[in-house]
Write a structure and sequence with these properties.
about 140 residues, alpha+beta, 3 strands
């Protein structure tokens, strides 16, 4: 088991090393209304201004949005894809590490955690103790 795991760890590390800049968040396309009461956008929802591309992310619990030009969208889309890839690789590395640890310690393999369930409580002030399974010797 260790040989395959070590080989995969090296592959993951090599892939991460090749990834360039990474940017958290999402690209969002929006259309909107302006403040001019006589403008077409006020009376006809199909004639709103836009679409405008923006980058949205969370920082310290607040949503931050920046408008982007088409050239910026092309540049930063790759960075956003890189961020998702790094998170996927990190999740794989964590799962592999847990599997090897459980194997080495003779523990039952822990259940898989779906990606949307990986986050802990949102408002916890103290970290939860690590869970290594109930059958620890």
């Amino acid at each position: 088991m260790h040989d395959e795991a070590i080989q995969r760890v090296r592959q993951i590390a090599a892939e991460i090393a090749e990834i360039g800049f990474c940017l958290p968040g999402s690209l969002v396309e929006r259309s909107g209304r302006c403040g001019n009461p006589g403008c077409r956008c006020q009376h006809d929802p199909t004639r709103r201004h836009g679409p405008y591309q923006s980058w949205t992310r969370k920082h310290s619990g607040k949503t931050i949005t920046k408008n982007l030009s088409p050239a910026q969208v092309e540049t930063y889309k790759i960075w956003l894809d890189n961020d998702r890839r790094i998170k996927t690789l990190l999740a794989e590395l964590e799962a592999l590490s847990i599997e090897v640890m459980a194997h080495d310690e003779g523990w039952a393999k822990p259940p898989e955690i779906s990606p949307d369930r990986r986050r802990g409580p949102r408002h916890s002030t103290t970290p939860a103790p690590p869970s290594l399974g109930d059958d620890a010797a």
